[in-house]
Protein 1
Amino acid sequence: MRARSSLNRVALRPSYLAREQARREARERPFPPPIPLLCPAEKALRDAVVAAPEADKLRLVYADWLERNGEPGRAQFIRIQLQLEHCADEAEAESLHEREREFLRKHGASWQAELEPWGVKDGRFRRGFVEEVTLTGRAFVSLSDGLFALAPIRRVRLIAVAPFMDEVARVPQLTHLAALDLADNQIGDAGLKALLSSEHLHELTELNLRGNWLAPESIGRFGACPLLAHLTHLDVSDNPIGPDSVSHLITPSALPSLRWVKLNGARLTDLGVERLAKAPVIASWRGLRLAGNDIGPDGIRALAVSPYPEGLTALHLRFNPIGPDGARALSASSALRSLHELDIGYTGLGDAGAEVLARWAVLSSLRDCSLAGNNIGDPGATALAGGSAFACLRRLDLTSNRIGDAGALALLRSPHLGQLRELVLTSNFVSDLGVQALCAAPRLAGLRSLSLAWNRLGDVGACALAGSAAVANLRSLDLCGNDIGLRGARALASSPHLSSLRRLVLSENPRLWDSAIAPLRERFGRALIVDSDYK
C-alpha cells in the first residue's frame, strides 16, 4: 500500500520525485561533526602546531604539556617520531622504530579516533601527529574546514574524486598541502585542467597523477601553471603520454624545481628516452623511473652516453626488453656514478648481463639493487659475488631467478658484499643442503633480512637455520612456500639464536599444521605470519 500511495503521489504531483531525490542527497551529504572539546591550554598548543606544522619545538612543548597532564605515552610517542626524523645511526633508528610500532599497535587507533567523523580513511602519523590522510572527494570538499583545524595535515590521498575536481580546486585548505595523491582516479584532461586552475597550489611539492587517463596534450598544462614552481616530485605513470609529450616535462621553465620523476608505463619507447637523454634539465633530477616503457638497448645507449644524468641517485628500468646488450651499454656509462638505487628487474639480462654489471666500475655508491626475474643462474650469481661493483651494496633482490645452492653460497662468501644487510632469494632453487652450507658462510652474520621463500627447503634446512649462531642478527626471515613441517617448526621455536626476529613468515608450508604452529606462536607472537593470519 505504501508503494502504491507513493506512485500515486508521483503521478499526481511529478515534483514529488524531485523532492524525494533532494532529501536523499541531503541525507547522504556529510555534515561537519562537532569539533572535539579541549581545555583552553591544550587547544592553544594544538592550534599552534597546526598553524606552524614545520616547527618541531612547538610539538615538543605540546608533548611536555601532555606529560604533565596524564598522557606520558602520547608525549613519548611524539618525541620518538621527532627523533626518527633526525636519526642517522642505524641501530638507534631500529630501536626507535620498534618503540614507535609498539605505541601505534597499542594506541594508534584511539589517537586518531577523533578524525574518523571527518571521513578520514587511513591516517598516518609523522612527527607525532596525523599528517597524512585518505579521503573521498566528497569528504574533502565538505569537511576540510574542520578537519584541517584538528591536525597539521600535509599529505592527502583522494579517492572517488573525479566528479568533484572543480570543487576540489576551490578548497582553500589545498594551501596546507605539501603532497597531493590523485592516483587511479581517471580524472582525465578536464580534471587536470580544473586542478591546475586552482589558486591554492603554491605549497605543493609532490603530485601523484598515476593512472588518470591523461592524454599526451595534457602534459603541456604543467608549464602553464606557475604555482607548481616548487614541485619536486611528479608521478604521471600509467598514462598514455607517449614520446612526443616528454618535451613538455624537459622545458627548463616548465617545472624548475623538479627532482624526482616517475614515468612508468607511459609508452615512451626508445624515442622518448632519447629525448630525455638530450635534455640538459635532467642534470638536476635525482630520481627517474621508466619501468614498462618498451625501452630497448638503443634507448639505454642514449641514456648511457648522455652527460646529463650524473646527478641521478635512483634509476628504475624494470619490465623493459634491455637484454645483455642494454646491460653492456649501461655499464659503459660514466655519468651514472652517483646511483644509490638501481632496479633492472625483468629485463632479460641472463647470466651474460649479470656478468657485465658485475664489472661496472662506477657503481661504488650503489646501495640497493634489484635484478629480479632475469633468468640468472649460478654462473651469474657467482659473477655478481666476484664483482667489486657491489662493495657498498646494502640490499640485493634476486627474486624469480634460477639460482641454486652454488650461486647462493657464492653470494654469502663474497669478499665484496661485506655491507649487505638484506638478501632476497625468493623463488629460486636453494635446497636444504644449500642452507646448511649458507649457515657457515661469513656474510650471513651481517644480514638483517633474509628471504628464502618459495625455494626447496624442508625440515633439514629449517633446523640448520635454527641451530646457526650466524642468524642472531636477523630481524626478518621469510620461509614462505617451502616444505617445513613439525620438526622444523619445533627447531625454530626453540632456537636460542632467533631472539632478534621481528618478522617470521611461514605461510604456504603445507605440512605446517596447528600442532606445529602453536609453539611458534608462543615464541614469536605477532612476529609470526602463517596462513591463518590471512583469513
Protein 2
Amino acid sequence: MHLYSFRVSLVAVLLPILIFAGRANAQQLIGTFNVNYLTNTAGCGPTSPNPYFCIDPLGPGPYFINVPPGRYEVVTVSSNLQGGNPVVWDGNASSGVSAPLSYVPGSVVMLNHTFGQIVLFQFDWYPYDNDPNHWIIVSLYQLNTSGSLGITTTSLPDGNVNSVYTPQTLIATGGTPPYTWSISSGATPDGINLSGNVISGTLTAGGTFNFTVEVTDSAGAVASQALSITVDCTITPAVPAWTQFTGTPYDQSYITTTRYATLGSTPVSQTGVMQLQNGTSTFRIPLASSTNSLYGLATLLSSVPGANAAIGGSSGNYYLSVYNKRCEVASCFPRSANTLQLCDGPCATGSNILTPKLMNAYGCAVTALSIATSHVGVSSIQERTGPQALSPQEFNEFMSNTIDLTSLGGQFDAQGNVDWFNTPRYIGNNQQRNKFTFDGSVALDHALCVDNLPVIEQVTSPHGTHFVVVTGKQGTATDGSQYTIQDPGYSQTTLQSYYQRSPAPQTVGVVRDPTDMSELNLSVGDDADLLVTDSSGRRTGFDTAAGTVHEIPKSAYLRTQVADDVTGETTTGLTHSIQVLTPTAGPYALTVSGVAQGLYNVSVHFYSEDGTAGSLTLVGVANNGSSSTFQIEFSPTSTTGSTVSRMATFASTLADIANSLQLALMDNSGIANALSAKLNAASTAATNGDHVTASNILNAFKNQVSAQTGKHIIGVAPQVLQEDADSLIHQNGG
C-alpha cells in the first residue's frame, strides 16, 4: 500500500462503531500494517469530525485500503505507544465513520464497510511532537460471509517498466479460511510475484502479461480468476529527434540521369566506348554490339575495380545506380576529389550522366542507425582535427570515408545500402573502444522493454522501403499504435500507418555493447541469395526449397534496400545479409543461390570474442537457379583461424563456364567447349575411381584457363574457374 498524506476541509458525519476488547471471528487476513506515527494539526484529535481535515502534510500519512463491501475488523497486534491513538476511518473524504483503536494488543474495531476506503491513521496526541519511536502494528481482516469460495479481485492496475509496482492485495470470499494462493497458469510480469495474497515488486520488462490466480481454502475448495497486467516501456533517455532532411550527398552513390526503355536492346553508348572516372583514375569501358545495353553496361561496370552497378526502374524507365566501392577500403577525403563520373566517350569532352544521391531522399537508414548509435553513448565522431558532434550528416560522411579520419570509417555495402552488421564495429574503432555490435537477432518487445534499446524497423512508406526507430510500447493495442517511433522522413509518431501497408514492418536490429564480440556475418547483392548451415544442420537464410529460415541460435537474415523518399524509386540494389552472433567454433556451409544472371561478391566478416576483425570477399558468376557452395571454418578465439574455401562440383563448374560465356567474361565458345570437355573427362575418371587421371585432367584444365586469362577469359572468371579446379583436385586426393 502507498503511505502518503493530504489535507481536505470537508466535514464528516460520525456514525456509531462498536469497539470490543476481544477478537471477532476474523476469516481472511487482508494485510498487516506498521502505521507508525503522524503529527497532527494543533487541536485535532482522534475524535475530531474528520481525520482528513486534521492530517498534517508533514506525514508520513495514512494507509488507504481498497476492499470490496463487507464486514471487516481492525486488530491491534503490538504497539509501544504510551499516549496518542490509532484511528480507523471508513468512508471517503466527504463522509464516513471514525473511531480510535486502543493501542492495547488484541483490541478490535469492527466495520460494516459499504463505500469508499478503509483508512488507517495513528495520531500523536501532542501537536508537532515528532517522535518516530511511536508505532503501532495492526491487522485488517475480512469476516467470513456465507456462500461458496470466490475471488472478488477482477482487475489489477497496469504499470511502467523499471518502476515499483504498487502492492495489490487479492481478496477472496466465502469458503473456509485460511486461504492458500498460487499462480495456476501464465506468469506475472518480470520482477513482480505473488507472495501470500499480495502481488508486489519492481517491474523489469514491458508487455502484456496474462495469468490466472488460484485460491484454495482449508476444506480443499478451489476458485480461480484470470488477471492481466500491461507494463508500458519507453526508451530512456529519449532518442534525438533527428531527420534525414538535408541536401548533402548520400554516401558515394550515384544514379544515371539518362533513362532507358529496355534492359537488353536500348543502346547506352553512341560512341561504343564509355569512360568511368573514379577520382583521378580513369577506366575505359568498350561496348560490343552484344553488351551495348543497360544490362551489359551494369555487368562491365561491376567488373571495374572500385565500382559496382545495379539496375533499377521498370519497363520504359530503367536506370543504373552506381556505387564507389573504393571508399570501402580507402579514404575518399575530400569528397570533391573522389567523385564518380560516367561518360559516353572521354569525360574531358563528353557529358557526365551520373548525379549523386542525396540524404533527404535516401538518408532514412543512415539517420536511423545514427539514432541507435547515439543511445549507446556515442556523441561524436573523432576526426584528425578533433571530435565532431554526432549527427546523421556526420554519420553519413563517416560511413562514406569522406571526412579526415585517423582510420577507416563505417561503410555502405556494394549496393549502396547501410552495412548494418559491421558499421557499429567501425564506430567502436573510431571511439577507441572496440565494443559495439549490431544485433539483428533480437525480438522487438524484448529489446524495447527488457534491454531498453531503440529498435530499427524496416517499414513500407507511401514511397516504398523506409526505416524508422521504435522508442517505446504503450498499452494493449495490436494495430501498431502501441509502438511509438522516431521517423526520420515522415511525420508518423507510431507504427500504426505502417501496419496497414504491405509488406509488414520487419525488425532490423539494435546497437548494443556486448561482452562476447564474436560474430560471423555475410552479405551479397542483387544477383544471389545466401543460406548458412551449421554443423547440427540448422539453417539461417534463404533455402530455395523452404524459403526463409531462422534456425541457428542468435542469427538473423535481412533483405534491405532504400527507396527514394521523394520519388518512390528504389535506387539501391537489394542486399541479402546473414548474421550469427557468438557462433560456435567449427564448420558452416554457405550456399550462394543465383537469382539473376550476373556477378556476385559475398562479403564475409569474422569477429573474435575480443572484437578482433577479419574479412574476405568471395566472387562468383551466377544465373537464376545456379548454386555455389563454400565451407567456412569459424574460430571464436582468433580471426586467423577462420577460413573459407570453395566446395565445387563438376556440375557447378560446368555452370560457371556457361555463365561466364553468357556474361561475356569468356568470348570464345570454342574455349568454353574445350574446358567443358576436360571437365566431363575428369568427372568420368573420378566416377570410375581413377583419381590420378582425374587430377591430371583438372591440372590441364587449370593450365588452359591460365593461358587464356586476360585474352579470352577476363574479369572474375579466371579466379572462379581456378578455385573450382583446385576444389575438385582436393576432393580427388590431389
